Automatic annotation (TrEMBL):
Classification via InterPro entries: Ankyrin_rpt, Ankyrin_rpt-contain_sf
Keyword field contains Membrane: yes
Keywords: ANK repeat, Membrane, Transmembrane, Transmembrane helix
Transmembrane annotation, as ranges: 292-310, 316-336
SUPFAM superfamilies: Ankyrin repeat
Protein name per UniProt: ANK_REP_REGION domain-containing protein
ANK repeat residue intervals: 1-27
């Protein structure tokens, strides 16, 4: 406790080597990690997290009135360091602009204790990915756990992994094309082999799990493009430590669009988008919205033709009614958008 509060990382290393407990608390219930984060001792915080200190202790950091005001301004600013979509963050104090060095230290600490990522909210993961500029792949690498191919051959283990609905993707090989551009080619396990392996048991590939089957089929690409000579082989498969990642579209897109990330630029990312697109009525809504815009164009054109070319003396009430219909459609379109 004293070593953490004084920021003496060397003494802390000696104590940890001597197997000193890192879960001790003072009379106010404060732990060593809370002290390290409060006083901004980056190396101490990294060491504590690397050795298993609970990351959730940081959400109890007392924010001064000045810091609270700074944080509220940060959330309102469109060009801020903290995206507004992170309102559900468990560690708001960590994302203050002056804590960027601490963010990097915590990220490296979590790289050695990646299981703690399961304790965080999606908003915290988004903040790590956005904020981790000096070590952009630390959290991304820690967020995914490699699954050995042998684990997928055991029915119980494979079913558990699938029922957790975690993101599973396959390793990407980069290929040079003739016009000097790089293409990301996905290689994955053959789904037909898994179907044959589990055909005699209650399989997720059979009803009533048709929606899950569609999602998993898209998530594990199995066929080559027409005319392609590339043979698909079994390579590394990973799963996200945060369950249900495909249900958090913001987090998935944040990972996919990260400038340093090449992991999600695969067919698996497109499978997630396709799943979200079909299951949230986005395609139907897009069709209805386009139809509404076409109706607006037709009504506008009709009025222009009647007034300019047809020389029709229509009652003012008719044009008034049509104008109100157009206005309602326009307002609906704006609110929908």
């Amino acid at each position: 406790h004293i070593a953490s509060r004084m920021g003496n990382a060397d003494v802390l290393d000696v104590l940890i080597m001597a197997r000193a407990s890192i879960d001790v608390q003072d009379g106010k219930g404060r732990g060593p990690l809370l002290d390290a984060v409060t006083f901004r001792y980056n190396r101490v915080a990294q060491t504590l997290i690397s050795n298993g200190a609970s990351i959730l202790d940081m959400h109890d950091v007392d924010m001064s009135h000045e810091n609270q005001a700074s944080f509220s301004v940060t959330l309102r600013s469109p060009s801020s360091y903290v995206p507004s979509k992170t309102k559900d963050s468990l560690m708001k104090y960590l994302w203050l602009p002056q804590n960027r060095a601490m963010v990097d230290a915590v990220a490296y600490g979590l790289a050695k204790a990646p299981w703690q990522l399961t304790l965080l909210a999606a908003a915290d993961i988004i903040n790590f990915i956005d904020a981790d500029g000096s070590s952009p792949n630390v959290i991304l690498t820690s967020l995914f756990q490699r699954i050995e191919t042998s684990d997928l051959r055991h029915w119980d283990q494979s079913l558990k992994i699938r029922e957790e609905r975690t993101m599973m993707y396959v390793q990407v090989n980069r290929h040079k094309l003739s016009y000097r551009l790089e293409s990301n080619v996905v290689e994955g396990p053959d789904l037909a082999d898994l179907q044959r392996l589990y055909k005699t048991k209650d399989s997720p590939f059979n009803p009533p799990n048709e929606h899950i089957e569609h999602f998993l089929n898209a998530l594990l690409p199995q066929t080559c493009a027409p005319g392609s000579r590339k043979a698909f082989t079994n390579v590394a498969t990973f799963k996200c430590r945060m369950s249900g990642i495909h249900n958090n579209f913001g987090l998935m897109m944040c990972i996919a669009l990260h400038r340093y990330n090449q992991l999600f630029k695969t067919m698996a990312c497109q499978a997630l988008v396709d799943h979200w697109w079909h299951h949230h009525w986005v395609m139907v809504g897009s069709f209805l919205r386009n139809s509404l815009q076409i109706a607006n164009i037709i009504l506008y054109s009709l009025i222009i033709i009647l007034l300019r070319f047809a020389n029709v003396e229509a009652p003012s009430g008719a044009f008034f009614a049509i104008s109100w219909v157009i206005f309602v459609f326009w307002a609906w379109d704006v609110l929908w958008h």
